[in-house]
Design a protein that fits this description.
It is built from five helices and no strands. By secondary structure, it is mostly helical. One of its GO terms (molecular function) is DNA binding.
Length: about 110
């Protein structure tokens, strides 16, 4: 998604935002030729071992644009997958519902 956003900004000629994204790249990543930092770094990786925990995380992600004041309802945010989960209609990005994955066992409990 980050590459798509940068590409769109480049096509629009939005130099101000591209320069801002470039300024957020740390020195280590810059040495690896990273040009833009689109998303905030996060170190709170969580493995989803249960359906309940997975649903909690999915709902958290869906409601983030609302909490930020971007939209009133999750399905209104064009970059969210909430529209698919709430209505069943594909949006901007193709979605495979995590509940449809055949080889994932979400019933295993964390020990």
């Amino acid at each position: 998604m980050a590459y798509e956003l940068v590409s769109l900004l480049q096509k629009q000629g939005n130099k101000a935002i591209l320069e801002q994204l470039a300024s957020w790249v740390n020195a280590t990543d810059r040495m690896k030729n990273k040009k833009h930092e689109v998303f905030e770094p996060s170190f709170d990786k969580k493995e989803c071992f249960s359906l309940k925990f997975t649903l909690t995380k999915v709902n958290y992600i869906h409601w983030n644009p609302c909490k930020a004041g971007l939209v009133k309802l999750p399905e209104e945010y064009v970059h969210s997958l909430a529209g698919y989960y709430f209505t069943g209609f594909q949006g901007v990005y193709p979605v495979i519902n995590y509940m449809e994955l055949q080889d994932v066992d979400l019933s295993v409990s964390a020990s």
